[in-house]
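User: Round two. Same drill as before: sequence, then structure, for each protein.

Assistant: Same drill it is. First protein:
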Amino acid sequence: MTRWVAILISFVLTACATIEPAESPPEIVDVEPPLPPAKSFTRAYPSPPARSNENMAADFISLHFALEGGTELPVFTRFETPITVRLTGAATASLQKDLGRLLTRLRTEAGIDIKQIKGGQANITIAAVSQKEIQAILPQAACFVVPNASSLEEYRRDRFKQKSSWTKLSSRQRLGIFIPADASPQEKRDCLHEEIAQALGPLNDLYRLPDSVFNDDNIHTVLTGFDMLILKAAYSSQLHSGMTREQVETAIPEILSRLNPRGDAVPVQPMSETSRAWISAIQKSLQSSRSQQSRMRQARKAARIGKEQGWTDHRRAYPHYLMGRMEQFDDPHEALRQYDIALQFLRATPGTELHRSYITTQLGAFALSQGNGPEFLPEIDDAINVMTRAENASQLATLLLLKAEVLNEVGRSAEARSVRLDSLRWARYGFGSDVVARSLMQDVAEGPVN
């Protein structure tokens, strides 16, 4: 294999972990070849939610009346006035562009009166700070949102006061969002989507949702059609801050019928809550500070709980996907077995095309390493289309590199080079590392080498 394919497969096997940007010595900066501009997404592809309004009404209540840890919220809260947003700190051009796109989507898809301002006090202040500053406060967080703070300094000072407690809010007036300025463009965009959505609406995450950013599995990274419907319902004139759970439960069915009439004709599906034991096992299986053996035990525990619960949806598949990732270095055949189990459940669950495409990335790298890339190309192409609609540049860059190598193997070298260059542009947005980009750029310049 070529050197860049070895780099690629190392990305896939480590789940495309973020690579810290390295500082180049000043004396060699001027002699580095120029990198092509990063690509970025210009349009959204939200699919309408496929579930019944009755199911989504239950989702709405679960999302708005609890925090992620399970703490119940006494009343419904939202902003009651036109919403202003201000971007502060070390904001990059990509962050500003992605914020503008998101605000436009919120206005047009969710009907929320929201706009960006350049100065003065805003309802939502987005502060671009360093990852180190964020992790000094919340070590496990990539980004976060808090009530009644507009800077890290204010939050540090008041974080243990009642003003900083979500459970004490009766309405939302001023919130702070803290995003890592030194992360990749895609990571910053993902934080924008999740944290602004939580600033506006739901504070809970539900693993049972297959089509939402309000899910800690991080499969969806930009707001979906379901998410926009939930936010649009939250800002209906029939709701207001201070309403009790019972009052919202009474109002939300009519709101959803009006906003999403097609959902009234969709059959209601049985719904099961996700146990805290399963959530705990999944979270522990993802902790990099734990040993591989410990993480595998927790993934197996989650798989066992899912089986005992009788689940057949994406939650049943998720621990098997995680076990496949963990086994792929040491036991590729066992990894393939775990991926196959995950795919069995995902194929039987509507709306899981994106979930399946994550597994395609893993299987594509394996097929390539075994010399079976050409046979796997149609599946890679399907996954590329899915990842494009999902706006996932890091996965898209990886899939395009897989495709480029396959094209090279079958003698389509000119097309392979073009696809590889396209991958490089997406990699600059998705991974945000010029060190990686320059390594790939060298291979593009040299052309295909076997």
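Second protein:
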Amino acid sequence: MGISLNTLLSNIEKTRVEMVELAHRYGFSNPNVVQCSQKLDSLLNVYDNFGKQ
């Protein structure tokens, strides 16, 4: 069984907020911001494919 849609959406929002906060604190090119952005991209890809399988 996979992740629920509500959990996925919650994780996406938490990661988005974290990324914005990190970007304001350290700048957009900081490695921590880039890593968080990549995590968000991955979560969004999961969301995009949600229910297609």
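Residues 5-26 form the longest helix (22 residues).

User: Perfect.
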